[in-house]
Design a protein that fits this description.
alpha+beta, Heat Shock Protein 90, 11 helices, membrane, GHKL domain-containing protein, NatK-like_C, transmembrane helix, transmembrane
């Protein structure tokens, strides 16, 4: 084992580290130490396996175990997603190396001969293989990050099983090839079929992700329409109540203007004034900001809180157009207010601060009775599609933002900066 081989193993492990780290949603912690440990272990593992080649077929299993341990430390994602993405990473290495070596061998030697091929072209092939691995890693990151948050755990389980199956096919194929049990024609057909199978599989899941995104968009549009209809009815009812009070107030003013009545001490007038004061206080007055999505969500959630005797205090400073998508803004604010209303304390106070200048800053604070509410399982799910706080985190990660959940002075604070 030469220093050049160790250097190649280090480069391969570094590219793999870059790939798997970029595919997941990371925790808000420094990853330098776990990344360094993984890089050392991975390089050592590949070097050791190259020394004892009878275990080379099982390299991907050991590599996958290392990847899963590393990603569980740095990632917020589920174990199913980690398994699927980790298996894909090892599959990508195998497919690039096998395809490159077999293709070059057949084109230059007319047959597959690994020993002769590496004897004459080791440095060139190694540089080419690592370059292709880096290129396809970058393309994979762009591809998976475009839809990774739209797949469910069950779909990641399917992906994991599929990638494991393909990886085992590669192991079997490489073993047969090394034993000279496959001729050149079968080799070319097998490689072509495997590559086509992988491409079609990725395309299929990409189409599934597009379908799921469109489905979520349709659900958003439907929910938005229902909210607008409900809001219109509430505003109409408020207008009817205000017109009725306006009519009655005319009679009160006429009564107060009569000279034969002491308007200050008259019990009838005092009772009427108190009655209509209470009615006015009970009338829903809609919010009006420069952003229609904010208007929609705030008014619906305000009315919901109003009906539960929860007081919402809002401080809004936004422009007409916010840089995140309408559906994401709707989901983000809906889930934040859902959690605040669901877990309200005895004080029944919710404070909403939304400010948009160079970045969108949202702070939702609600009174609580238990300081450990942030750890309660119920807060992890919301009635809106069952996403809850995970949806809030996903949307924040999508726009490379930050989110913080904290409990301070019996107030639960959700702070989002995008």
């Amino acid at each position: 084992m030469s220093y050049f081989d160790i250097l190649l193993n280090f480069i391969e492990s570094s590219i793999l580290l870059f790939l798997i780290t970029s595919l997941v949603n990371r925790k808000d912690t420094n990853i330098f130490i776990p990344a360094s440990i993984y890089l050392f272990c991975s390089t050592t593992l590949i070097t050791a396996i190259n020394q004892y080649q009878r275990f080379e077929s099982y390299l991907f299993i050991f590599d996958l175990v290392l990847i899963v341990i590393y990603l569980k430390i740095i990632s917020k994602d589920s174990i199913f997603k980690i398994l699927a993405l980790g298996t894909y990473s090892t599959l990508l290495i195998a497919s690039i190396y096998s395809t490159l070596l077999i293709t070059v061998s057949i084109l230059t030697l007319g047959r597959f001969d690994y020993v002769e091929l590496m004897l004459n072209n080791k440095i060139v092939l190694s540089i080419l293989a690592e370059s292709l691995f880096l290129l396809f890693s970058y393309l994979s990151i762009k591809f998976f990050n475009s839809f990774k948050d739209t797949l469910s755990n069950i779909e990641y389980i399917y992906l994991f099983i599929l990638f494991i199956s393909i990886r085992l096919i590669f192991v079997t194929f490489e073993t047969l090839l090394a034993s000279n049990l496959i001729n050149d024609v079968n080799t070319i057909l097998s490689i072509f079929s495997l590559v086509l199978f992988v491409l079609l599989t990725c395309t299929l899941f990409y189409r599934i992700s597009i379908y799921r995104s469109n489905l979520l968009k349709s659900e958003f549009d439907k929910q938005l329409l229902n909210n607008q209809i409900a809001l219109s009815k509430k505003i109409q009812n408020s207008q009817t109540e205000l017109l009725s009070i306006r009519h009655d107030l005319k009679h009160i003013l006429a009564l107060m203007s009569r000279k034969d009545i002491d308007s200050i001490n008259d019990p009838l007038l005092t009772s009427l004034v108190q009655k209509y004061t209470d009615q006015i206080n009970d009338i829903f007055i809609p919010f009006e900001t420069s952003n229609s999505i904010l208007n929609n969500v705030l008014n619906i959630k305000y009315f919901e809180a109003f009906s539960r005797n929860i007081d919402i205090v809002c401080n809004i400073n936004v422009s007409k157009k916010i840089h995140i998508g309408d559906d994401d803004l709707f989901l983000l604010l809906s889930n934040l207010l859902d959690n605040a209303i669901t877990h309200i304390g005895k004080d029944k106070k919710i404070y909403v601060d939304i400010n948009y200048t160079s970045a969108l800053k949202i702070k939702i604070s609600n009174s609580i009775d238990k300081e450990d509410i942030i750890n309660q399982p119920s807060i992890q799910q919301s009635e809106y599609h069952g996403f809850g706080i995970q949806t809030i985190k996903n949307i924040t990660n999508k726009y490379k933002g930050d989110c913080l959940f904290e409990v301070r002075n019996k107030m639960f604070n959700a702070i989002i900066i995008i």
